[in-house]
Amino acid sequence: MKLAASEVGGVFEIAEMVGVAPDTVQQWIKRYGDFPEPWRKVRSGRLWALPVVQAWALGRGLPRR
């Protein structure tokens, strides 16, 4: 999958995108077995395809406030 730089991010970018704290994203990764797999793993951490994560969160109705 080819993505633009703006479509790739780590935990902090995911948190910003969906309006939650980075710790919440970390909890989702651990809690939900269907959380999207990282798009790439680099030395500094994992990177996700942000459109895929956004679709996943919307499909689950997250965040629940």
Which features would summarize this protein structure in a list?
65 residues, alpha+beta, three-stranded antiparallel β-sheet, 3 helices, 3 strands, 45% helix, globular
Structure description:
45% of the residues lie in helices and 15% in strands. With 65 residues, the chain is α+β, with helices and mostly antiparallel strands. A three-stranded antiparallel sheet has the order 1-3-2. A hairpin with a 2-residue loop joins strand 2 (40-42) and strand 3 (45-49). Helix 1 (11-18) packs across helix 2 and helix 1 packs across helix 3 (50-60).
Strand order of the largest sheet: 1-3-2
* 3D shape: globular
The number of helices is 3
What is the mean predicted local confidence, pLDDT? 95
> Low-confidence spans: pLDDT under 50, at least 5 residues?
none
What is the straight-line distance between the termini?
A: 32 Å
Run of helices and strands: EHHEEH
The radius of gyration is: 11 Å
Helix content: 40-55%
Strand content: 15-25%
Number of E-state strands: 3
The major sheet is characterized as:
3 strands, antiparallel
**Coarse structural class:** alpha+beta
